[in-house]
Amino acid sequence: MTPAVRTSACPEKELLACCARTRVDSAIAQKISELLNGDLDWDYIFTEAEENSVTPLLGRNLQALASDTIPAAVLERLKNVCRANTIRCLFLTAELTKILELFRARGIQGIAYKGPALAVQAYGDVTLRQFEDLDIIIRQSDLQKANEVMVGLGYRPRFEWIFSSDATSSLVPGEYNYRDEKRRVMVELHTELTLRHFPEVPDLEDFSERLVSVKLNEREVPTFSVEDALIVLSIHGAKDFWERFSWIADISELVQRYSDLDWDATMQRAEALDAERMLHTGLLLATGLLDAGVPDEVRRRLQADQAAKEVAGEILSSLMSRQYRPLDAKGRFNFRRRMRRGRLAGFRYAMRLSVIPAEEDYEMMRLPAKLSPLYVALRPLRLLRKYGWSRRNP
Predict the structure, then answer these.
(1) Cα separation values, 283 from 252, 257, 291, Å
(2) CA gyration radius for the chain?
(3) CA distance 61 to 57
(4) Most buried of the four, 151, 273, 334, 368, by CB within 10 Å?
(5) Can you tell me the distance from the alpha carbon of 19 to that of 231, in angstroms, rounded to the nearest whole number?
(6) Using CA atoms, how far apart are residues 151 and 189, in angstroms rounded to an integer?
(7) β 219-223/212-216 pair status
C-alpha cells in the first residue's frame, strides 16, 4: 500500500489485508500481532470478512498465529464460521463435478470458472476460497442442451421466458442463472455472448486449446490455464470494480503459486483482447495490497501504465477505508472508460456497457419481442435511477 492509503486505512481492514493470503512472512506476522494488540471491532471484522469473501483465510491465519491472543469467544466464532464454510465448499464441489459429468455425457464442454476449481488451482485447498455459487462457461450453441440438464437436476432458470419461442435471440442476460431453492444452490452458466465485459468477444475455441485440469473429488475438471486465468479474473474484477479483497487475493495467489508462468504469453493474450489495462490494474492491486511478487520487467511495465496506477490507487483507498462507498453512475462510467487504452476506445467500451441490457433491465419491464430494442433506452435510465449521476445529486 502507498503511504497515503496506509494512513487512511482502518485497523480492521488492515488485519483483513494481512490475513487475505496463504503465505505470511515474518513482517506480516508482526503486523498482525501489532493490530491484535489494538482496540478492534470484531463484529465489524466478521462482517467485512464475509463481505469480502476472505473468512476462511482470516480463520486459517488467526488460528495459526494468534489463537492465544484473540478473545476465546472470537476464536470460537471464527471456528464455527470456518467450519460452516468448509461444509458448504465441499457440498458445492460435489455439485459442480456432478453437473460437469452430465454436461460431458451430453457432449457439452463445460469450463469450471472461479469457485472450487480456482480454489484448488490458486490456493491449493478447495476450502480456502469462499464462494456461494458455481460458475461454468459453455458455448452459446450448447445452451439449450445445458438448460435441459439443469432443469432435469431440479434447477429453475431465473429467466425461463428467454427459452420460450416468442423471445428474441438478442435477449441475452449477464449470465444464465439457475437456482435450486431447497438446497440453496445457484449455478451461473456463461457463454461467449454473456461475457460482455470482455473488451473483445472471447474466442472460447482459443481458450479451450490451453485448458488445464484440476482434481476435484478425485475427478479431473477442466479450467483455464494460469496465464488465461490471470486475464479472465482481471476482467471479472474490473467488471465489478474490484469491490472485494478476494478478487485481488485470487490474482496474488496465482502469481505467487506459479513462479514459472509465461509472462510474455500472458501480456500478449491480454493485448489481443484489449484487456491489458485490466490485467495491469489487477496486478497492481495484488502487489499493492498483498505484496505479490512479479518479475522486474513486469513491474516496470505496470509502473509505466499511469492510468492503471491511478485506478488501482483509488480502489485501494476505497477498499481500505472503514466505510466503503460504491461508485455512482458517473464514477462507474468513468471507471469503465479508463479500462481501455485510448480515449475513443474507452468511451465506446463504457457506452456499450451502459446501453446493452442485462437481467435487471428485463426484470424491470417485460417487453414483447418486437419492442426489445427499447431495452437499450431503458438500461441507462435504470442505472441513473439506481446509482444516481453523482453522490451529490442522487
Answers:
(1) 8, 14, 10
(2) 21
(3) 6
(4) 273
(5) 24
(6) 13
(7) antiparallel
Calculate the alpha carbon distances from 140 to 210, 223, 290, 332 in Å: 19, 18, 37, 28
Say how far apart CA 275 and CA 365 lie, in whole Å.
Answer: 33
Q: Provide the total of helices (H) and of strands (E) in the chain, helices listed first.
A: 19, 7
The 10 Å Cβ neighbour count of residue 153 is 15
Which candidate, 244, 218, 264, places its Cα nearest to that of 114? 244
Residues found in the chain: 394
Question: In whole angstroms, what is the distance from residue 247 CA to residue 232 CA?
Answer: 11
- Contact yes or no for 322/12 (Cβ under 8 A): yes
Under DSSP, the state recorded for 217 is: T
Looking at residue 102, its amino acid is L
Burial letters 124-133, b for 16+ CB under 10 A, else e: eebbbbbbeb
Please report the pLDDT score of residue 394 as a whole number.
Answer: 35
Grid cell of 268 as nine digits? 500478449
263-272 vs 296-304: helix axis angle to the nearest 10?
A: 30
The amino acid at residue 128 is L
